[in-house]
Amino acid sequence: MSPRPGRERPGSARPGRRAVPLGSRRPRVAQRRTGPAGPGDRAPTVDRVPSGLRTAAGYTWRLGLLGVGAYLAVDVLARLELPVIALFVALVITSVLRPLVDLLARVMPRSLAVLLAFLCTVVVIGGVLTLVGTTVADEWSRLGNELRGGLGRIDHWLTGAPFHLRPGTVTDLRAKIGDFIAAHRSTLISTALSGAGRAVELVTGLALAVFCSVFFLHSGDRMWSWAQRQLPARSRTVWDRAGRAAWRTFSGYTRGVLIVAGTNAVLVGIALAVLRVPLVLPLTVLEFVAALVPLIGSPIALAIASVVALAARGPVIALLVLALIVIIGQIEGHLLHPLVLGWSVRLHPVVVALSVTGGAVLAGVLGAVVAVPVVSVAWAVIGELRDLRGHRGPPDGEDRRHRPDKAERGRHER
Fold first, then answer.
1. Which of 12, 108, 204, 370 has the fewest C-beta atoms lying within 10 Å of its C-beta?
2. What average pLDDT is seen over the chain?
């Protein structure tokens, strides 16, 4: 018996149409307009905005919020300058003394190991400063005579080729500097007094840093465990891995930069001693301190050493000291940094240079010192979180790549 016209048998399909399973809903198909739009028809507003512009707008307001948050964080840290600097110095002290404390703690109580490590550090630093002061005091009179004779040699050198300056240029410049100091003596005294106030703040911050580092060295692991217990249980693993990556990078950078600075100081000291430049030990210590700022610290210290060599030994020795800037820079950039810092800090030299410059613009010398470790720690934490997200599976333990989509599930059901 043939079915009535207008009715269809279940399961049958008209020619040109796809069969629809029983109980399912036929998808709606939007009709395409072929003629011009009427006066009452209006296209949706979202269709008028290109997708690229919508994406750019989304990134813009999100980046704007991040920028505002970063600005507020920097402003708060600038207002809390003293405790922030003290905490940073405490972390530096902890990273340097932690291996020694762990070694001594194997044969004695940990509190006694911390005390002995601090005593050794104070003895070493005090001995170096005493030796530098004694050297400067012994060579001061001889250095004064050499500097006066050196100024005369510089004046004579500048009058010849290729400068052809008039005689007495350096002597006149020295006289003008003396007149300037005499005219602005009150301003210099007030500046020195304000510097004395900064010295008091420096001593206070150093005492706070030593106080914090004692507890970090003695019970830092327990403090970190207590901080983790204050977090939600599902976030403790992430924070633990991020914190350990940050500490590993920071401690590796601190120890590595101290090794690099010490190596630079030894090389510069040997070179200055061979060239018979006066004040070798103070200039060596200056090189060590300046080399803590990557890329720019060592050239500044060597430039000061070249000025001393110019005044005491003449232009030829000064040019040789200037040549040390290139040699030390090549050794530091192509040998020491890859060997010593390559395993803990993986930053391109361009990133290091931009970080140091940006830190110097924002916070002066302190910003230049802090910029590279901060950027290194941030990059290490980002990399650790990326690896953690890559190794973590879906919440139910199933691989997302092998999950069937809706179309596949529908075909299997049919």
1. 12
2. 77
